[in-house]
Amino acid sequence: MKLHNKLFAEFFGTLWLVLGGVGSAKLAATFPDVGIGLVGVAFAFGLTVVTMAYAVGHISGGHFNPAITIGLWFGGRFSFAEVLPYIAAQVMGACAAAAILAIIISGQAGSEIGNLASNGFGEASPGKYNLLSVLITEVVMTAAFLMVIMGATDRRAPAGFAPLAIGLCLTLIHLISIPVSNTSVNPARSTGPALISMDATAISQLWVFWAAPIAGAILGALIYRTLLSNNAEDA
User: What is the radius of gyration, based on Cα positions, of the chain?
Assistant: First the structure.
């Protein structure tokens, strides 16, 4: 598969992830009488990954997340030559999705786009959790996510079920961590809403949602490759 095909798949997949996940949080979670709430938002994020993994995962690998791209490289599953192009495509997809959402939201009389469900700590955390809590949450959740991805896509795993396992894992991650950090585990997902909303707090805290997910993904890759993998396969 040519690189431009892979990059468009990553762009579109990340766009869909942010459009579906952040869109559900901004447009449907608090809608009068039928709001989907935290559980609905968690499932929306999971469903975006399931649908795109089946739709374009065979083209690009279905990363849709800079931390996962870096983690898979550390895990021996991805070429370093494509890391930066993948990350660029993912961030552009997230920004495009956030821009689409901003336009949609602005079409409602009296509406404000706010921070587009950005991630944060302290006063920007849904549950007012501090920086340490957010760092631990994002590192641990991303490490677990990367381990599930590597395990579900291992040659020894049952064929055809990886998207379901990965999507359900992301759903579970959101159920746990939305109150803490509004759930990132994905630097692109954090960057798009922060930049498009131009929210000063979200932008100033954005470094956390690059550093912690990347650290977590590297940790998860090293744990899986050291303790769980067939080393000959992952070498």
Answer: 17
SS (H, E, C) the chain: CCHHHHHHHHHHHHHHHHHHHHHHHHHHCCCCCCCCHHHHHHHHHHHHHHHHHHHHHHHHCCCCCHHHHHHHHHCCCCCHHHHHHHHHHHHHHHHHHHHHHHHHHHCCCCCCCCCCCCCCCHHHCCCCCCHHHHHHHHHHHHHHHHHHHHHHCCCCCCCCCHHHHHHHHHHHHHHHHHHHHCCCCCHHHHHHHHHHHCCHHHHHCCCHHHHHHHHHHHHHHHHHHHHHCCHHHHC
Angle at which helix 37-60 crosses helix 3-23, to 10 degrees, equals 170
Residue 34: pLDDT band by 50, 70, 90 thresholds?
confident
Residue pair 33/108 in contact (Cβ under 8 Å)? The answer is no
Alpha carbon distance 112, 61 (integer Å): 36
What's residue 229's pLDDT? 84
- Rounded distance between C-alpha atoms, residue 117 and residue 174, angstroms: 13
Instruction: Kindly state the average pLDDT of the residues 49-55.
Output: 98
Q: Give the residue-averaged pLDDT of 67-87.
A: 97
pTM as predicted: 0.94
The two three-digit tokens of residue 24, written as one number = 């559900």
Q: At what angle do helices 3-23 and 187-197 cross, to 10 degrees?
A: 70
Q: Using CA atoms, how far apart are residues 23 and 103, in angstroms rounded to an integer?
A: 12
CA atoms within 13 A on the CB side of 213: 26
